[in-house]
Write a structure and sequence with these properties.
The complex is a heterodimer. By secondary structure, chain A is mainly α. Chain A is 67% helix and 0% strand. Chain A has 4 helices and no strands. Chain A starts with a helix and ends with a helix. By secondary structure, chain B is an all-alpha fold. In chain B, 32% of the residues are buried. The chains are: A mainly alpha, B mainly alpha. At the A-B interface, helix 1 and helix 2 of A face helix 2, helix 3, helix 5, helix 6 and helix 8 of B.
Chain lengths: 75, 174
């Protein structure tokens, strides 16, 4: 056996002593939890920069109402 | 229309069928990485929730299982990393002084091995868990992680080197 293989075998044995193989079988059906998670699903979130942009547009409309006429002219 | 196409179009029955087909395998994969059944159950549900949310981007001709395993692996790795940040490891690791049949010393040795393992980068932890503890074939690990088989081998090799060096430094003889 090559030295690196022996090294690997020794580490494998040490790890298996420390972390014995656990149960990997699922004990219950997770579909009910999945359904609850889907029902909790929030609506589409609005990113922060969209709120900033909307606030900016609102501020312009409040402080410079005549600008609306400029936009209307170009429509 | 096949199951994957129906799933992509938002059919809940198709999603349920896929969920039931894959939940056990996804759970088994996650629990091997996180080693905690409760956390593995939560992460399994989270995996499928993300799958459901991203269904519109899924190509029905692609491998659903591979996609699910990659999402599951990323979530499990994130969990392992977070756990390591939440539970910082003490630096004052005492050496055991070698093999000893005394159960207290064996326990101490086990704790040292656990701490050395927890210090490994999470990608190496996953590779070594799958290859050496769970003894999964390299090919399977590579497919699950979406990386070449050679990368899995080199991660295991690096992890073995690091573990051996750390354990020898602590006086633990593997």
């Amino acid at each position: 056996m090559k030295p690196e293989d022996r090294e690997q075998e020794e580490v494998r044995a040490a790890l298996q002593r420390t972390f014995p193989a656990g149960e990997t079988e699922l004990r219950r059906d997770l579909w009910p939890s999945m359904l609850r998670r889907l029902e909790e699903q929030p609506g589409p979130t609005v990113p922060w920069y969209d709120w900033v942009l909307a606030g900016g547009v609102l501020a312009v409309a409040v402080f410079f109402p005549k600008i609306a006429l400029l936009f209307a002219f170009h429509l | 229309m096949d199951l994957l196409t129906r799933f992509r179009e938002g059919d809940l029955d198709a999603f349920e069928a896929l969920f039931r087909q894959f939940q056990g395998r996804v759970y088994a994969w996650i629990v091997r990485i996180v080693r905690d059944p409760g956390i593995a159950e939560d992460l399994t549900v989270e995996t499928f929730w993300r799958i459901h949310r991203a269904r519109g981007r899924f190509d029905p001709g692609a491998d659903f299982g591979g996609w699910a395993y990659r999402i599951a692996t990323n979530l499990a790795l994130t969990r392992v990393r977070r756990k390591r940040r939440e539970e910082p490891l003490p630096d004052d690791l005492a050496p055991t002084g070698g093999r000893d049949p005394d159960p207290a010393l064996r326990r101490e040795e086990r704790e040292l091995i656990e701490r050395s393992f927890a210090r490994l980068p999470s990608r190496l932890q996953v590779a070594v868990t799958m290859a050496l503890i769970e003894e999964r074939p390299y090919r399977e690990i590579a497919d699950m992680l979406g990386i070449p088989e050679g990368t899995v081998k080199s991660r295991v090799f690096r992890a073995v080197r690091i573990l051996r060096k750390q354990l020898q430094g602590m006086g633990v003889h593997t």
